[in-house]
Amino acid sequence: MFPLALNPIAFSIGALSVHWYGLILGFGALAGLYLAIREGKRFGIPQEFFMDMLLLGVPSAIIGARIYFVAFKWGEYRNNLLDVFKIWNGGIAIYGALIGAIICGIIYFRYKGYSFWRIADICAPSLLAGQMIGRWGNFVNQEAYGGPVQETFLRNNLHLPDFIVNQMYIEANQAYHHPTFLYESVWSLVGIVLLMVLRRQRFMRAGELFLSYFIWYSVGRFFIEGLRTDSLAFKGGSGLASFINGLWSPMKGLGFEQGYLDPNYGNIRISQLLSLLIIVAAVLLIIIRRTTGAAKDHYSDPIVSSKTHAADPVVMEQPDTPEQNVSVPPSDPNHPTLEEDKKE
Predict the structure, then answer these.
(1) Which residues hold a 1,2-diacyl-sn-glycero-3-phospho-(1'-sn-glycerol) (predicted)?
(2) What CA–CA distances, in Å, run from 239 to 115, 253, 275, 320?
(3) pLDDT in tens, 75-99
């Protein structure tokens, strides 16, 4: 007799059901906001800037994440269009969320007069914090898990507590599974510490912390994605598939096996391929920005908003002598000069 899975509904208000998935994602967003506000204070950026950014960025990220996921699962949604909007049941892709958030950030930062790269650097640990916490929503929904494992592996090898082990038993499959949500959550936590150390280093240039986030997350995602059984995939060349599998092969030396991927669905996991492309692109961007001088600013340099300074009120000098205290400009023909005042 196996224990029942956690109820994905946290509580209900009348006919409205509040899901753990949404609450956890919301908590992750607030944790990321806190980190951004705290770091922003060092540069004199008001907290309202980050709060407005969150109000705009979260919906943009959710929309981007859902569009990304549905696009690759269109066959399952085209006859059930209402299901497209049921995000509380899961089915959002982090890379899609990043695309939506970046597009929103480019527009919002430019509107506020800030450099995209400087603000993106501040937000890099926040992104990892949101992902670290958000993965627990997958845990509650029993999704984004890996291939089957023995219960002893979870208890004796990973030393996981009962509530995680029990939730990793998928009744439909009659088996325990790799807690890939946990692997990614821990990887993100280590990444937060790494980024916080890097941002205090003098050699870090503008944009490099943000790009380091992409490198770190993508490395972890590449190896963790190979364990999953629900990967978005497509049918590609056998050479490319062999190349990706070869890069993943060190995991086998650690005792891990790839999660099953239906060959009729695809042979290349989209997130693995995208992770490799992002790593290469991020490294190239760091090199190009350094060699061309585009990354001349350091992370620790002041951050200035062009819009804020343009809107600053001009402080007029106070007159030093009574004669200078003239309220009407001398160019006014109807105003008598000082000499005329004396004659009168």
Answers:
(1) 135
(2) 41, 22, 18, 82
(3) 778 887 888 887 777 677 888 999 9
30-60: pLDDT as tens digits = 999 999 999 999 999 999 999 999 999 999 9
- In tens, the pLDDT along 145-160 reads 999 999 999 999 999 9
Helix residue ranges per DSSP H, the chain: 20-41, 47-72, 74-77, 94-112, 116-141, 151-152, 162-167, 180-198, 208-225, 238-248, 250-253, 270-292, 306-311, 338-343
Mean pLDDT within 312-319? 40
User: Using N-to-C axis directions, what is the helix angle for 180-198 and 116-141, rounded to 10°?
Assistant: 160
pTM for the predicted model, two decimal places: 0.84
Identity of the amino acid at 323: E
The yes-or-no verdict on residue 322 having pLDDT over 90 is no
Alpha-carbon gap, residue 258 to 252, rounded angstroms: 8
CB within 8 A of 276, min separation 6: which ones?
218, 222, 244, 247
Is 135 labelled a binding residue? yes
pLDDT at 308: 65
Tokens encoding 150: 């023995």
Handedness of CA 196, 201, 202, 203 (dihedral sign): negative
- Rounded to whole angstroms, the Cα distance separating 91 from 143 reads 9
Contact 69, 40 (CB under 8 A): no
Token pair of 121 as six digits: 């650097």
